[in-house]
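Entry: Tol-Pal system protein TolQ
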Amino acid sequence: MSGEISILHLLLDASIVVQAVMLILVGMSVTSWAMIFKRKKILTEALSDAKKFEDRFWSGIDLSKLYAEVSARQQANGMEALFKSGFKEFARMHKTSRQSAAVMDGTHRAMRVGLSREVERLESDLPFLATVGSISPYIGLFGTVWGIMNSFIALGAVQQATLAMVAPGIAEALIATAIGLFAAIPAVIAYNKFSTQVEQIESSYINFVEEFANILHRQVSSGDQG
């Protein structure tokens, strides 16, 4: 208990600059944790939704019926959004052009745009986590350097220096570094984990786009032959 009170007193007695550094770091830590929980939920749902849609897509359902199901939903994300944009553009191009190359080129463009949007949605918040992970230790180090500097300046103003005089200032300064690491470490771990998950999801999206494009290409090619 005395240790906790001692740390609390150190925080309250710290200089304005060190206190400001600590508040910034605490704010960054709280924000990053909120983003971590939010991003974890989104990526988990994206993985689950992709698997469910792939199972539905490869179940042998008619593509027009599947498109109607997806379009009936208020919002389509992930693989559903790629399928919707691709099939919509394919149907539109197929009505206006009988050249399979032109049809597939337009379909590919639509799905590439959709893929970019989905990846951008999945990567949201990751730049902030990367920033927190990279700069938090330096912000904490700044608070530490400032606190130690003030301690030595105060030490130089007295004739007889003791460890008891300089220890509180150094201790409060080191707390800033500790808070910086506390903010940075979870952010770095989460960023690395989420980046890997985004790459896996993006890879599954790209594979789906290519497989779906091949199916559409066979359809339009058989139509040309007929």
